[in-house]
Amino acid sequence: MARYEYMYTSFLCVFLLCCCYCPIMVMSQLSQNQTSTMANLSKLLGTSAPWNSGNHSNPCSWNGVTCDSTKSHVIMISLSGNSLSSSGFLPVLCQLETLQHLDVSNNSLTSIPAEFITECGRIKYLKLLNFSRNFLSGSLPTFLGFDALEYLDMSFNVLGSSIDIQLDEMIRLKSLNLTHNNFNGTLPTKLGKSMVLEQLVLSNNQFQGEIPEELFSYENLTLIDLGGNTLSGAIPTHIVQLSKLQTLILSSNNLSGPIPISILNITTLVRFAANLNRFSGSLPSDISNNLISLDLSGNSLSGPIPKNILSSPKMEVVDLSNNTLSGTLLLTSISPSMIRLRLGNNLLKGDIPSDAFAKAQNLTYLELESNALTGAIPAILGSCLNLALLDLSQNHLSGTLPPELGNLSNLQVLKLQMNKFYGTITTPFQIGQLQKLLTLNLSQNSLTGSIPSQISSLSNLKFLNLQMNNLSGSIPPSIGISTSLLDLQLGGNQLSGAIPSMPMSLQVAVNLSNNNFSGSIPSSLSSLDNLEILDLSYNKFSGGVPDDLAGMKSLTELLLTNNNQLSGVLPKFTHFVQVEYNGTSLVLPPASDNPTPSYYPGSRKKGSSVVVAILVAIAAAVFLVGLVTLLLVLVSRHYSKVNDENIHSGEDHRLPQVVQSHLLTLNGLHRSNIDFSKAMEAVAETSNVTLKTRFSTYYKAIMPSGSIYFVKKMNSTERALPASSHVRIGKEMEALAKLNNSNVMTPLAYVLSSDAAYTLYEFVSNGSLFDVLHHGSMGNSLDWASRYSIAVGVAQGLSFLHGITSSPLLLLDLSSKSIMLKSLKEPLVGDIEHYKVIDPSKSTGNFSALAGSVGYVPPEYAYTMTVTVAGNVYSFGVILLELLTGKPAVTEGTELVKWVLHNSMNKDYILDSNVSKTSQAVRNQMLAILQIALVCVSTSPETRPKMKSVLRMLLNAR
Ligand SMILES: *[C@@H]1O[C@H](CO)[C@@H](O)[C@H](O)[C@H]1NC(C)=O
Ligand SMILES: *[C@@H]1O[C@H](CO)[C@@H](O)[C@H](O)[C@H]1NC(C)=O
Ligand SMILES: *[C@@H]1O[C@H](CO)[C@@H](O)[C@H](O)[C@H]1NC(C)=O
Ligand SMILES: *[C@@H]1O[C@H](CO)[C@@H](O)[C@H](O)[C@H]1NC(C)=O
Questions:
Q1: Which of 111, 349, 571, 915 could form a disulfide with 547 if both were Cys (CB 3.0 to 4.6 A apart)?
Q2: Distance 220 CA to ligand 4 centre (A)
Q3: CA distances from 734 to 158, 270, 449 (A)
């Protein structure tokens, strides 16, 4: 009875409720109070509101406004991406007592008013607050109230300081995202008293110290991302308490110790990434059957790879590369789910187990490079039909190329370089079957026979490297019909004959050096308008150099060294082109007033071939490390798609394929001016090239707003690989963009494409110091005041970069070409990202030592092969000498330093007389600075002063 009574009353209640409220529902009326709040809001936002309130009197129909089903309450407001910069409107929103979701992400807000926190803290229904991607600075506000808040996203701001109890009052907080801020101190552990937190994203901040065990009291955590901080210490074993954990990301920290045995045992764990730390010890073998992705790359893990890890049934991605794992690959079988397997750069030995791959039908990326594997390529690999990338380079593999490789019709990248393969490229293996091939590197093997003409039918092939084999015969004439080839490396073989017509697509380099090519250099090469490097050195070419070559629009280097039958007058190249012609009978064109090109007749002399030899040897090692990482760049684009879809191929690559673009600057003007598609259009057009440095090409890009920017392309030749993953480049760029020094050129934005990295800078119309000093119309007349001011400015910039406390930022290729002039007195040190981007950590120092500009490279680099602070001081000394002498770093066929030392008895001969003669005071000052320059270029690196002292000396010499 009581039950019926209860039902009856409930029914009555509902009935009554309807009677009272239905008329309102029918009229869909927003309360007067909320209507006027929305009107206020509209007034405050003005034209930056996403809605056009004039048209609709009912705010529920405005863009970005969501009301409940009865249209009587506003429950969601999204003002995302409206260029809002003033926070004044925020407290008004708090008058909407029914608000559940508030999204103000992707704006330019710099602060959250205190009233917003106090007033919105009272809203009983507010579940979601999204402030991500703004410019909020200062420390995290203390959230008092906010009893209903479940999702708080403050990611991608510039909030800083440490986090203590600011979040602890919240009782429903389930998801906290603070990624990409500047928070520091230890990891916060007070994240809501009620302990209901499920998702915790604190990555890419500056948190330090150990991972606190208190975090593991949040038993409902399913996702923890602490990547990209400077956390240290071991992973606490109590982490196994988190019995619901699905994703654990600890990448890019300084964590050490072993990977706790139990961690892979958490049965719910699906993804575990602890790459780029200092973990050591052996890999746990007991792993959860649910694990899908495991990334432990870039640690110091050792011992064998447990079978379970690779055969776990759901496993899709395993990356154990860059460790010191050893032993043989004794696999029974690789998981049929496996998509990507990276074991490169370890100490693995023995044969590649052939039956292991029998069921790996989904395997798309297989990277076993830089190990000590032996034996032949197992034929069974030919049955992994999804393979898009196969990298077995730098092992001790031998035998002939198995014909089964020809079955891999999805293969895009095949890297077998630096092994001991022999036999020919064509039989029985048919290279022509690999129609999707983009990159083929068979260099440094013992392959024989000729270059198969099938190569020309590979319509997607961009990078072909057959260097340093025993190939003979001539280049197949059909190569000219290739449509995609960007880079052709055929150096160090026994190829002969004449050069056939080359594909117009060539861009990076044509390297035919160290072969037996003969005949004349065809003038048809001049049609290769995008080609940057043409290396014909060490051959038997004869006759003259066709004048047309001087018209090659993109050429930066022409190497003709050691072709002793070449003769005649060299064509007149522009100053962008470095021509080397030692060991030929070529002579320079007659001088004229025009800017002189960079001819290097004898400056490198025989040393040049030694350098080349060292280069080849070292580059081989460095290159591999580089390549592995370049591959990341090249391939991660595909990789990122892996989980969703199959690899795309045969894409059109005329415009750079943008993988990622990102604004770095906080300056609102730049942010609104920069248009990425315009920037990419600009780099597609060689006529926009305004400057070239050793590692990069500057393009001028005019944005739709009319403002001009530099887009700098980092050349992706083997001399300058963007040897790093996207994430890494992005992170480095973000750090660089934060550098603040008036003499340092900092990036405003960057774009990553499949094969290059682009950075956007403020345009500098004066160009580089090199241009102004040696080629500009004002070169000779650049007065002393300007030169001195430039010297001090560069020293200031460098001592700032060298003084960065976390770690000095060095210049890979410091020269007058990398100094930009904002005005004739204000220099900017450019190309600062090369050290970080071209070389993330390891070997690239080696590159730069070899590839650094002639004349600026300190003598010790030849032995140390690393870039150093003292090395930068030497290069700076050379720049001082350029300012003092007015002469380029290579002058009269020798390095400027040697020229100056040779003439050191006659100081007045050394100094640029146009300047030194202006007054005795100027001359004295120049002599004082010459002393400083000479200390900087001392042979012994130990005796060179630090930049800070150099700066002080320069200022004292005023
Ligand atoms: C709406 O009501 C709230 C609370 O009753 C009040 O504080 C606020 O001032 C009112 N807003 C308007 C615009 O009348
Ligand atoms: C944390 O950041 C704040 C502000 O950015 C700074 O003042 C403080 O020194 C930093 N603390 C540490 C330990 O780095
Ligand atoms: C912040 O993290 C949460 C939880 O993982 C995620 O849903 C959200 O998209 C992230 N925010 C941004 C701006 O990426
Ligand atoms: C974890 O979540 C469950 C289900 O959502 C909830 O009942 C429980 O109270 C939460 N645990 C803690 C420690 O709050």
A1: 571
A2: 6
A3: 11, 30, 49
> φ and ψ at 708, to 5 degrees?
-110, 140
pLDDT tens sequence across 917-956: 888 889 989 998 998 999 899 888 888 888 988 998 898 8
Output the residue whose Cα is nearest ligand 2's atom 10: 161
What is the number of the ligand closest to the CA of 91?
1
Which atom of ligand 4 is nearest the CA belonging to 195?
14
> Of the candidates 824, 813, 714, which has an alpha carbon nearest to the alpha carbon of residue 769?
824
Does the Cβ of 201 fall within 6 Å of ligand 3?
yes
pLDDT (0 to 100) of residue 484: 86
Nearest ligand to the C-alpha of residue 137? 2
Q: Whose CA is nearest to atom 8 of ligand 2?
A: 161
CA-closest candidate to residue 757, choices 822, 839, 690, 702? 839
Q: Give the count of beta carbons closer than 10 Å to the beta carbon of residue 516.
A: 14
Residue of the nearest CA to atom 8 in ligand 4? 196
Nearest-CA residue for ligand 1 atom 9 is 95
The structural domains of the chain, with segments of one domain joined by +, span 653-763, 769-958
Architecture of domain 769-958: Orthogonal Bundle (1.10)
Residue corresponding to tokens 């004044």: 88
- pLDDT, tens digit, 9 for 90 and up, residues 457-478: 998 898 899 999 999 999 999 9
pTM of the model: 0.66
219 lines ligand 4 (CB under 6 A): yes
Q: Which of 813, 831, 839, 912 is catalytic?
A: 813
Q: Which fold has domain 653-763?
A: Phosphorylase Kinase; domain 1 (3.30.200)
Alpha helices (runs of H) in 280-336, residue ranges in sequence order:
307-311
Active site residue 547: no
Q: Which residues of the chain register pLDDT less than 70? A: 1-28, 53-56, 576, 591-598, 600-659, 693-694, 715-726, 754-755, 776-780, 838-852, 862-865, 893
Ligand 4 site, residue 196, Cβ cutoff 6 A: yes
